[in-house]
Design brief:
Layout lengths: L1 E7 L6 E3 L7 E3 L1 H14 L3 E6 L19 H13 L4 E6 L12 E3 L2 E3 H18 L3 E4 L6 H11 L6 E8 L6 H7 L19 H13 L3 E5 L5 H10 L4 E5 L1 H12 L5 H15 L3 E4 L2 H6 L4
Parallel strand pairs: 1-3, 1-4, 1-12, 4-5, 5-8, 8-9, 9-10, 10-11, 11-12
Antiparallel strand pairs: 2-3, 6-7
Helix pairs in contact: 1-2, 2-3, 3-4, 7-9
This protein binds ligand PBG and zinc ion.
Length: 298
Amino acid sequence: MLVQPHFIVPGQGIADPIDAMPGIDHQSVDRLLETVARDVDLGLRSVLLFGVPEPAQKAPDGRAAWAGDAVVPRAVAALRERFGDELVVMTDVCLCAYTDHGHCGLVDHGRIDNDGTLPLLASMALAHARAGADVVAPSDMMDGRVEAIRDALDSDGLSHVALMSYSVKYASAYYGPFREAAHSAPSQGDRRSYQMDGRNRREALLEAELDVAEGADILMVKPALAYLDVVRDLREAFPHPLAVYNVSGEYSMVKAAAARGWVDERLVVLENWHAFRRAGADIVITYHGRQALAEGWL
Ligand code: PBG
Ligand code: ZN
């Protein structure tokens, strides 16, 4: 049920704390292997990988995102080799950490080029899948990306690789700490032309229907806490496995309040997780996973 996200950086021997996300580090692949080995022993058997490239690697089209020797494919291959089928390896597919402007797609005269972005996302997903990812998870919110990725995987003999779509992803202030962690804040403008309007409920069903028609295997709602009605809507409308993303801002708020002794961290985390399950989520992507298992909260 629990998926632990990781932020992977180039280099060796690196485990640098992320200021806005206490308990979560930037890690190089060698350190990631050590962390995941401990997590697997705790029973935490699924990971979601985010690459954080060097600033010098960023480009207008985010080309480092689909390099076969980039940090994410290298991490996937190393995890696969070390853990085999013990571990479910999921990868985030989006360009924003790799583009110099920080947007999730190509930018053309101040506008997002939705269709021009699709082949780039497909190449990125392909690089992850070829390295051995079990699940690729597009978070960019371009229309048509599920189909583009599915086609690319199938044509490459990778029809067994599953696709978890960030189907319902709202433009949210709760992503703040993540953007610090992934160095992926847009340098100009915001993401409201491609991410969803938090005031809109029915559009969630439309987005999910499109993803299902295009071949998504797992649907996701993100953020989690402020959108539990949407989780319930999807649970009732689709038989697909449903994930929620308990995002960085939700995590950091709990950590900050708990650090001051203002809330009981264990009880608040469990209350949030129970709410996700009650709303209908099967899969919970959460930064709290390791601590909860290590400290026997469940
Ligand atoms: C990149 C991406 C984001 C998150 C996951 N993938 C940030 C964004 O869209 O700005 C957010 C995760 C979190 O806040 O924990 N597209
Ligand atoms: Zn993005």
